[in-house]
């Protein structure tokens, strides 16, 4: 039985509790100003219409400038799988005469746990998403940056020197930027979302049964259901819209039995998956896994041509308890330098928001195959694209509940 009614009841109860002062117990132990700040945040999470300048606290200040990098150090980096090139790590080790130890996480919750674990010595969180930034900052899990170490910020799109989610880039620098769309193997399925009024509908075609994958991510999963039903607010708290999205996904399960995937790039490249909801960089990376002799143009990628689809960027941050904070700052700077960023895109498929990285240059310089130019991200997508922002508490519970219901049908 679907839980639309009970979810609506949950939201009503939550709203009543807040109105009656029910947050008192939840926020007990906080100072009055902190309570006020948290209540304000819950009402107005960071968005292009509500840019946020995060506070810097006296007990968590930027490191001093002018320090030498730590000697005989091991820089500990955590990242999504397949999101940083091995060559970049090797080159950084050589440049700064250190070791780099990489550990991956498969969900943002896992990444936060690695940073917040008592005794954690993580130096760099590579790939933090915007919807968890408040958790990282309000929880004192990351430290403000000393911008003097990060001179390559002048190579990124101007928007990222004062992003809405971190005004004045006090805690973050941008890492990868990507769209969410549809990737497919043209030699395995006959699909053309470009010819459809709503391209997302292509995944619901019953003839693709057993050949479909969707991202194993609750935000992207429910977001797919919302887009298929015509809702473009990817942060909606409306139980009716969330319920409709869940219903659309239940129909997707019935029609095609999709696979939940975290490595679409490999699955598309090898042919294990023929058509999938995926991130743009995953399709670009899939070219590396094609059977030798297959041309790159067997891969297709669709994103709404008018730019009105999901657009996101990951961030680079430094955990508060970083053991090697100077090296960590230098690593962020290193990854923003054009030659290193280009190497990184060649290996991972994921673009970085550098002014040099226009689609034409990316193709002409052989960074990505010309057949996959649709996987590049245009600068104006930063404004026009649909953004996954921090969900408010009640909405987040509904999104999780709906997604868990869908995921259980696929396990």
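^ structure tokens above, recovered residues below v
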């Amino acid at each position: 039985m679907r839980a639309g009614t009970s979810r609506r009841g949950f939201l009503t109860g939550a709203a009543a509790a807040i109105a009656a002062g029910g947050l008192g117990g939840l926020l007990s132990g906080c100072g009055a100003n902190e309570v006020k700040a948290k209540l304000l945040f819950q009402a107005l999470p960071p968005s292009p219409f509500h840019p946020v300048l995060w506070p810097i606290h006296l007990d968590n200040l930027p490191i001093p400038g002018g320090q030498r990098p730590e000697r005989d150090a091991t820089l500990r980096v955590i990242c999504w799988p397949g999101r940083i090139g091995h060559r970049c790590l090797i080159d950084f080790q050589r440049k700064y005469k250190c070791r780099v130890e990489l550990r991956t996480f498969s969900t943002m919750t896992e990444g936060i746990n690695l940073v917040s674990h008592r005794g954690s010595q993580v130096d760099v969180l590579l790939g933090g998403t915007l919807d968890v930034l408040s958790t990282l900052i309000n929880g004192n899990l990351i430290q403000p940056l000393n911008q003097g170490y990060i001179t390559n910020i002048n190579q990124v799109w101007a928007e990222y020197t004062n992003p809405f989610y971190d005004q004045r880039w006090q805690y973050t620098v941008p890492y990868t930027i990507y769209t969410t769309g549809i990737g497919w193997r043209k030699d395995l399925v006959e699909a053309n979302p470009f010819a459809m009024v709503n391209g997302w509908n292509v995944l619901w075609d019953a003839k693709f049964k057993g050949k479909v994958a969707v991202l194993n991510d609750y935000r992207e999963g429910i977001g797919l259901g919302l887009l298929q039903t015509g809702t473009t607010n990817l942060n909606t708290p409306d139980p009716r819209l969330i319920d409709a999205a869940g219903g659309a996904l239940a129909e997707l399960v019935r029609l095609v039995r999709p696979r939940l995937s975290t490595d679409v790039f490999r699955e598309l490249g090898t042919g294990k998956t023929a058509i999938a909801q995926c991130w743009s960089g995953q399709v670009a990376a899939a070219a590396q896994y094609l059977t030798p002799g297959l041309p790159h143009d067997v891969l297709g990628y669709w994103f709404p041509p008018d730019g009105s689809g999901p657009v996101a960027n990951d961030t680079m941050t430094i955990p508060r308890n970083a053991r090697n904070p100077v090296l960590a700052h230098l690593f962020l700077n290193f990854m923003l330098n054009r030659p290193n960023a280009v190497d990184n895109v060649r290996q991972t498929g994921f673009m970085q928001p550098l002014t040099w990285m226009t689609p034409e240059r990316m193709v002409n310089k052989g960074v990505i195959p010309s057949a996959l130019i649709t996987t590049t991200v245009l600068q104006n997508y930063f404004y026009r694209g649909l953004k996954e922002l921090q969900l408010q508490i009640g909405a987040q519970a509904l999104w999780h509940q709906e997604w868990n219901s869908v995921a259980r049908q696929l396990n």
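The longest strand covers residues 173-185.
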